[in-house]
Amino acid sequence: MFWRYLEKEITNWEKKPYVQILFGARQTGKSTLLKKALSETAMWLDLSDPGERSRYLARPQDFIAECKALPKSNTPSLIVIDEAQAVPALFDAVQSLYDADKARWRFVLCGSSARKLRLTGANLLPGRAVYHHLYPLTVFERPFVETNAGIKQSVEFPRLLSADRPPKRLFPEVSLEQRLAFGELPGIAIADETDRPALLKSYALIYLEEEIRREGLVKDWGAFVRFLALAAAESGGMINCSALSRESGVSMPTIKSYYQLLEDMFIGFRIPAFSKSPRKYLLSTPKFFFFDLGVRHAAAGVTPGFEIVKTQAGIMFEQWVGQELWKRLGYLQQGKLFHFRSRGGAEIDFIVEMKGKYIPIEVKWTERPTETDARHLITFINDMGDKSSEGYIICRCARPMQIHENVMAVPYWWI
Question: For a surface tag, which of 37, 119, 199, 280 has the fewest beta carbons within 10 Å of its beta carbon?
Fold first, then answer.
């Protein structure tokens, strides 16, 4: 098994008297991670199994009886519920058991969709639970191969994520082009390259259809498929519900509900527009990103592969950087990610807010960045005063370059 960033945190929380709830999209490796990070389990329920799911939907009280039947011991009995969102009533059952005896059991609930939980107002155990989110692979877990300059990735992107990579088994080293072509899902990362396009197409079609139909989330599957392809093609851009409504033949309220559905299933995420600049006339529309490039390609009806990198390298590179920043901030559980665009056309790809400071970031598919590439970063830093003192251009330069007094260009392998 390969090392994952969350492994140590899940192991540490197992020793504490709290419920752990692990969310994340399908095939990000949640079950594999729990099997590796947790000690021996007394009970493991897999609610993706139709028989198990039907049984607990009909009689959730059976779960309480089964937990109470476990033998008492000096160490808590560890109980894992996989795909827990399939039976929201089990959250109430867990609370009942937890409140009755915090020392007798340790519960870990795992889920790939928050839709049903949100719609049913499910009990998410406030004050009793700690939440984790497992993302697709980061650069920490899946390093880059050597760069053209012969330098291995060795420095983390400044101040965004500080973590010592342990001397454990990491996912195979990979090039930037492979990341842009096939994404960062663990199963895809270790699959044969020739199998990856078919696996990703299956994920985008079979899994999404199965998941959505199982939970009864969409009434018109054909309309959703049309929306999905269009939304995937527009990934990384600002949300335009009216345009998608016209092209897909679906009402605007339905388009908005479909976007929310993708977020609830952890298939996509929004990056809000930055609004704290002293400049006027800023656009307020958020951008929407798919959580993984490989899934994005397949959902858009494009065969994942290197042809995409040849034709859309800059667009895919920007999305990959955005996904990496999103994952880093998610694991930190602090900081916020924004994009910036004015009505006059000034644009900054990403702005990271950390501890009251703002770090503007431009993404350029170039090996030779210039001060021209930094002009919007410089303006932003000057406008923000003491709230912003440094900006970065993430690009394909061989080594870090000081472009301006306040702007540094850094190689993509730095992040």
Answer: 280
